[in-house]
Amino acid sequence: MRTNGNKKLMRLVAVFEASKGLLVLLAGCGLLAMLHRDVQQVAEELVRFMHLNPASHYPRIFIDAAAHTTHGRLWMLAWLAFAYAMVRLVEGYGLWRERRWAEWFAAVSGGIYVPLEVFELWSHPSWLRAFTLSANLAVVAYMAWSLRRARSPRRNSST
Q: Transmembrane residues, as ranges (predicted)?
């Protein structure tokens, strides 16, 4: 049985995972909203709105990618976003309901990203990358601790 503090922490992780799913779901809806629009023009407007130099490296890559976007690619990206969002939302639900499978899934799926996040932080250090890695490591560590705790034999509390 979980203590109140452990239950709150598990629910915090559930909200975190579900929030990632909702964010990607919104991004997928945004992709579908681009279907009958000039994607390159929207990208250029977004770059100007963000006060970025459209001739600099990353904004130029973004604008060029938008120029070569097809309806088929938008649909594919939207479906991938929806699939990822559903996985994260189901994981969040499972963690909220304290399901063991969700804890395993959170530990494994979070652990898969760690090597990539370490490489990204090493290659291009930033506070955002450090925060992302730290948050992911905290989730993986908590899930591993929770799973190990659930496996350990319960001590007899009656004396």
A: 74-90, 102-121, 127-145
Taking phi over 0 as left and psi of -120 to 50 as alpha, with beta for the rest, 57 belongs to alpha
- Residue 107 makes CB contacts below 8 A (sequence gap 6+) with 140, 143, 144, 147
- CB contact at 8 A, 139 and 110: yes
For the segment 95-130, what is each residue's pLDDT rounded down to a tens digit? 999 999 999 999 999 999 999 999 999 999 999 999
Residue ranges covered by each domain of the chain:
4-34+69-151
Distance, CA of 40 to CA of 66 (rounded, Å): 5
Tokens representing 19 are 């929030």
The model's pTM: 0.77
